[in-house]
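Narrative summary of target 7.
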Amino acid sequence: MSTSGISTVLTNINDAFSGKTSGIDVASTVSALMQLQERPLTQLQSDQSAVKLQISTLGTIASELSQLQTATNNLKDNFGALSQKTVTSSQPTLVTATAQNSATAGTHTVIVQQLAATSSSYSVPIADPTTLAGTTLTIAYGDPNNPSKTDTITLPNPVKTLQDVADAINSSAGNTGVTASVITDASGQRLTLVSKNSGAAGNLTVRGAVTFNQGVAGKDALLTVDGVPVDSASNTVTGAVTGLTFLATGADPNTTVQIGVTPDTSTAATAVNDFVTAYNAVIQSINAQYTPDSSGDLGPLEADGSLRTLQTQMLELAGYSVSGVGQYVNLQSLGVEMQDDGTLQINTDTLQDTLENHFSDFQTFFQSTQGYGQAIGTMLSQITDATQGTVSVDVAGLTTQNNDLTQQITDFQDRMNTVQQQLTQEYSELNVLLQEYPQQIANINTQLAALNPNSKS
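Modeled conformation, tokenized:
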């Protein structure tokens, strides 16, 4: 409470003693006195707010470090961004391909002799579907003379429409290999069956109460891949080359298609950009603690020694050099340059040349067991360790400090509640006395006047 506040309280008490007022305002008097008593509480709360802001700021930096670790892992992971492949085809109307991370860069030759086909059969026109009620349908798959399996389907009795027959086939427990439907043409309605499996193994031979004709014969796709004959039940061919999936879209036995597999430099460049962005976010958050704002104030962590340690660790990370892994020894050598403020900037021309002409060395730099990716991955794991990491240890210490302040504030508030109760009681009693005081003075004056009638009050 200010000096003027104390003066006001004293003046109110003096006015009550002199009879100018009747007593004092106990509530406002106690409130004014409590402001003086509670000054240490304000300081404790201010200290706690500062600690909480430090914890929050460290939380932001911890999140940015986590993003940097994710970006680093994407570069050093053998199945990450640097393992992505781009695939080209010299004749995409005949065959295209997609590549998994395990695919090896190179060129493959493909000839498509025959596309796979899905077998279908259709019945003669059926004028009266009720005649099929209770009959049996036998469907053989594969070679008609030596089928790989056979479905036997008994149709329900009764049936009213041909669609009833199709529905019964589709829902039959004995049907595992065909889909039935009804097609209407100029001759009437026909029951059609389409194999659920493409290729020769799904070829249909149908026998039943009505005659079925083969619509399309089931056959396998026939390709030659790098001179090796390949038979596939589907036009999507996997397993012929490790990590590659071919999609045959047309057949031409006289045309050789070149399938090229190259590193996906675009994805790799994006991964490097992501790493630089994540790294710069951490550095900029650190730098902000030592940069005055518009009021000249520094950041909440400007006096935090752990932040200086983290800053040093980050700069070591950016400038770390390796040897024995090719022509690239550090980030700058492949086009990632450090600026005066500690942030990183990509030299686009240098990085592009690295990706296009020296991708193998670039990949080795990040993914070799002795390379940069492994080294900084280990460093980041130590920095971000949940118990021993630089930020974690700092946050743990500040959290303990915050908890101590919370307890101090609680204890202080409990004491202040007691003090307020005591002051309220004391000043309530004083107020009673002050309210009685003018009457007591009047009584005394009356008594004195009676003792000496000739005197003045």
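Residues 48-80+266-384 form one domain.
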